[in-house]
Amino acid sequence: MSELAIQPGQPRPDFENPASAVGHIGNVEQKLGPFELIWNEVGVRRGVFILLLAAVWEIYARWLDNPLSFPPLSTTAAVFVSDLASGELPVRLWSTLQVLVLGYLTGLVIATILTSVAVSSRFGTDVLATLTAMFNPLPAIALLPLALIWFGLGIPSLVFVITHSVLWAVALNVHSGFLSVSMTQRMVGQNVGLRGLPYVMKLLIPAAFPSILAGLKIGWAFAWRTLIAAELIFGVSSSQGGLGWYIFQARTLLDTPRVFAGLLTVILVGLLIEGIIFRAIENRTVRKWGMQS
To answer: Does residue 55 register a pLDDT over 80?
Structure first.
């Protein structure tokens, strides 16, 4: 009521709220218990989920009792360990990873060149937008016949399809990330004298790194699945087939546990690269810079 009595133009009189008793204030910070501390770890939660999936796999396979179509996890794990110890799986995996790295890096280099041209001129932007609209929806595996005609049966054909699968996803994300950098940040960079390559390296790339990292992840996933699919079709390269060829051979021999062992290897490699390499990059960049929670 006193506030209603204040006349227009007059300052409101000062007042002081009475201090509340400390005992009436609840706990604003509660110490977590040991179980909650452990459960807050991402790796622990994911590990529990994987163990649940493994248990469901083992129980269902034993209930189905048909190892030819769905072997138990224990049988698959035994074959996996056996082939790992004999060196067959590491050799196949090493052959696949070599081709993957070659195609992935080739795609990144071409994507970097296209994006640099796109951010430097309006015509370059139009070129990148047109190429992306044309080729990004085109499945890389559909280019296999053309790759065989052009490069023959071997590593160059695999590198060609991997490059196609990586190139457009990375270029699109990098370019979108550069465009999302605010005008205020651009003006600050120009005011401190950044021009040309330093402008890109010190301002655009750090500011757009969340989008760049997302593009790298998408490109890696596309490359990995494309390579395995390509090896399943014509996996022999330089007289040495990769992981996809290992799965294809096992399928031909109706060796289902070995097929699952190959698929398990594909999944484990994906989890390791996602959980170790990309996680480390995230922790040292976007999380460290406060750009991602």
So the answer is: yes
